[in-house]
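User: Design a sequence. Structure:
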């Protein structure tokens, strides 16, 4: 394994990708603050290129590669947002991109990946099937793998959301929160927030996809886990590098129920007036399920994306 990702890596990633991404805004709602009982700051990555924070990691990965490697093409596996991000970034540099997607991925996300010019390979909705399809594609075509989360340049790229967020909020925050699936965002966020602030870092995970929580509590990563959650972006098992960063830098991981995810998602739609996907709502849902430790605190949350299937809303 390579060296651990550092604050400097995240700063360099930000300089590399800044010309290509959006500096997304911070959203607030006094009505929502009153309902929840703390001061909330939302980093609106639903307004990011491709509609999700994954543009940051995908862009950093592609712009870190040399032209010779790029010309052979890149491959990844993704339930949607990372695939779209890699396809978008690869197109900026004229590189071919193949994305292995589970056959139960939301149609809106499959369409998005295709729309950015990627070749899509569908597989069974298991991590083993994804990895096998990627391995076959690499052996047949010589593609370069850009792993969706267990990858240093991806972790550094995702950490740039926290870099911007802490610059944009004019007073110190007490808590920084991000949801956790594969752990690229929470890993990068925790490295930057711990290195550059005094904030606590808390991850949030659905009860039906709690592999990171179980590993965090036991001190040992779970390699196998079968998630079952509405939050389709969080169905990945936490990666090796990501878990190491989380163990080193994250103060706690909190769980939330499926019903609370839907409630939190609806609150964000109605109070912030923005469209988010279920994965985004998980940190707010965790606060709502365990409100006591957040009362009166200043809490910064990364809203991860807005690529929701409008034909399959949970209400």
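Assistant: Done.
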């Amino acid at each position: 394994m390579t060296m651990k990702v550092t604050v400097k890596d995240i700063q360099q990633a930000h300089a590399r990708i800044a010309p290509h991404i959006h500096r997304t805004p911070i959203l607030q709602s006094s009505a929502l603050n009153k309902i929840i009982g703390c001061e909330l700051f939302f980093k609106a990555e639903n307004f990011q290129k491709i509609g999700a924070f994954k543009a940051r990691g995908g862009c950093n990965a592609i712009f870190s590669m040399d032209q010779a490697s790029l010309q052979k093409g890149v491959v990844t596996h993704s339930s949607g947002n990372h695939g779209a991000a890699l396809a978008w970034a690869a197109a900026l540099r004229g590189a071919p991109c193949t994305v292995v997607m589970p056959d139960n991925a939301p149609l809106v996300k499959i369409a998005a990946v295709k729309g950015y010019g990627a070749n899509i390979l569908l597989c069974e909705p298991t991590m083993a099937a994804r990895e096998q399809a990627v391995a076959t594609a690499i052996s047949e075509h010589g593609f370069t793998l850009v792993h969706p989360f267990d990858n240093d340049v991806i972790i550094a790229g995702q950490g740039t959301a926290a870099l911007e967020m802490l610059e944009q909020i004019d007073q110190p925050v007490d808590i920084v929160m991000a949801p956790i699936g594969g752990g690229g965002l929470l890993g990068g966020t925790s490295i930057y927030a711990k290195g550059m602030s005094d904030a606590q870092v808390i991850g949030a995970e659905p009860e039906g996809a709690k592999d990171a929580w179980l590993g965090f509590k036991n001190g040992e990563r779970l390699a196998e886990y079968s998630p079952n959650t509405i939050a389709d972006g969080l169905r990945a098992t936490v990666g090796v590098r990501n878990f190491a960063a989380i163990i080193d830098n994250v103060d706690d991981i909190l769980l939330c129920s499926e019903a609370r995810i839907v409630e939190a998602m609806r609150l964000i739609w109605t109070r912030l007036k923005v469209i988010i996907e279920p994965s985004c709502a998980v940190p707010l849902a965790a606060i709502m399920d365990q409100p006591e430790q957040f009362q009166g605190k200043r809490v910064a949350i990364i809203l991860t994306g807005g690529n929701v299937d409008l034909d399959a809303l949970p209400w």
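Residues 106 and 155 are 24 Å apart (CA to CA). DSSP finds 13 helices and ten strands in the chain.
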